[in-house]
Amino acid sequence: MALLDPVTVEITVPRDPEAAFIAFTENFNEWWPRASHTISREECTGIKMHPGLGGEIIETARGRTPLTWGKIEIWLPGEQVAFTWHPGWDAGDYTRVSVSFDQNAFGHCVIKLVHWEWENLGEIATAVRDGYITGWQQVFGDVFATYLRDAKK
């Protein structure tokens, strides 16, 4: 299988990198669209990104065993977080996501999400990647960006 291009979404918001990093990681449960983008949908009671190297991203739901979505591989507060990504999949069928936080010359934060290693998914890699092109634009490019713009400084 040929290597598939990463899915990349970039946003620029009037926040500093440290605040944006905290919003993405510590406040993951506040901005993530649980009703539409979780395994358990309306039964979802929370999604938590446990901080630090080796921390896990876990979905909890009423009457269900917690589901691990991924594991943190890079934790650089205010700069970058990277993790494996396998929501609802076997942990061995993971992809990777990296989110970087940089300040531009105007004092705004440029946040770039890159999702790659689709080949780990085998025959379904192209279809899954294609779904994430619009999925990340909606979840990260629209929902998370709006959360940051609306959040109190």
Automatic annotation (TrEMBL):
<dbReference type="InterPro" id="IPR023393">
    <property type="entry name" value="START-like_dom_sf"/>
</dbReference>
<protein>
    <recommendedName>
        <fullName>ATPase</fullName>
    </recommendedName>
</protein>
